[in-house]
Amino acid sequence: VSTRVSFPLVELDLSPFSSTTEKVPLYDLTGFITHEGSGADSGHYLAYCRNEVDGNWYEYDDSTLTKLDSAHVLTKEAYVLLYQKRPSLSVEAARNKTMEMISAEEIVK
């Protein structure tokens, strides 16, 4: 792959491509794969993933792990993009409450 494609990190909106009249969910990028080399049968693949806990992006290159900033992530030529549907507000509220309870429990210990 040698053609750069721009892609959003957050809030991918697929509603322009949907035939439904219902609200279409938004998606956030959670990871992608790049390829360095002359062809699909040779070269080197790298994985990039966003850590859901700390929100940071990481590059996985064999046994090497490198933390990246979002601006650097957007410069990559993605081969495969992996998106996750954004949770509904009720799911997000429950997740936040759970994280608060876990944090409070750790402070008590």
From TrEMBL:
<dbReference type="Pfam" id="PF00443">
    <property type="entry name" value="UCH"/>
</dbReference>
<dbReference type="InterPro" id="IPR028889">
    <property type="entry name" value="USP"/>
</dbReference>
<dbReference type="InterPro" id="IPR038765">
    <property type="entry name" value="Papain-like_cys_pep_sf"/>
</dbReference>
<dbReference type="GO" id="GO:0016579">
    <property type="term" value="P:protein deubiquitination"/>
</dbReference>
<dbReference type="InterPro" id="IPR001394">
    <property type="entry name" value="Peptidase_C19_UCH"/>
</dbReference>
<dbReference type="GO" id="GO:0005829">
    <property type="term" value="C:cytosol"/>
</dbReference>
<dbReference type="InterPro" id="IPR050164">
    <property type="entry name" value="Peptidase_C19"/>
</dbReference>
<dbReference type="InterPro" id="IPR018200">
    <property type="entry name" value="USP_CS"/>
</dbReference>
<dbReference type="GO" id="GO:0005634">
    <property type="term" value="C:nucleus"/>
</dbReference>
<dbReference type="GO" id="GO:0004843">
    <property type="term" value="F:cysteine-type deubiquitinase activity"/>
</dbReference>
<comment type="similarity">
    <text>Belongs to the peptidase C19 family.</text>
</comment>
<protein>
    <recommendedName>
        <fullName>USP domain-containing protein</fullName>
    </recommendedName>
</protein>
<feature type="domain" description="USP">
    <location>
        <begin position="1"/>
        <end position="86"/>
    </location>
</feature>
